[in-house]
Amino acid sequence: MGCASSKRSKRTPGYEEPTVLAAETPFTVSEVEALYELYKKLSNAIIADGLIHKEEFQLALFRNRNRRNLFADRIFDLFDVKRNGVIEFGEFVRSLGVFHPNAPVADKIAFAFRLYDLRQTGFIEREELKEMVLALLHESDLVLSEDVVETIVDKTFTDADTKGDGKIDTEEWKEFVSKHPSLIKNMTLPYLKDITLAFPSFVVASEVEESD
Amino acid sequence: VVPATMNAFELISTSQGLNLSSLFEK
Fold this sequence. Notes:
By secondary structure, chain A is mostly helical. Helix content of chain A is 54%, strand content 4%.
């Protein structure tokens, strides 16, 4: 019977069954199917291989494939769990799961920590914080004097580094976020609750039937 | 205007690179 399916759907490398991904994330099966529609669009935007390359990620975020950005690089690297230079479908869904409104807050806090731990030492260090502030200023064309930058970084660091050992660990980070919950506001994407409306997955649904 | 009392993490969390909502724009 295998030869009957001349229109068998082509699955990209890294494709995982929606039921498996739904079991591991806050998404329902139909939401994962809708995410696959979005994923196909993003992953074929420049290189038609069904994998999200960094240029495609930058294009989706900034409408510009060449716009480098420290924070977008960090997000890409965290999504690219296998570290093979592309975001596969399973990686895309699991990582976006953290941004779901129903995802545990602890996961959002942990993700933000890893994002800001630029050199992956297990701590956010003062130099990293300063580097991120400078990157933000550069990105937004804001100009601040060196003194003001130092003051902002120093004050924040003193507030967060309660143990005073010159680095922010995960415990200190959790405590700091609990005092400033707005810090993880961008770890929640309300869009993810309406993803099935934005990307209906009729095609995927019929493909599932076909393969049964 | 960025006051010197601004929380540095608050500032960096406004980065466009961290705003994934643009992934969903058609």
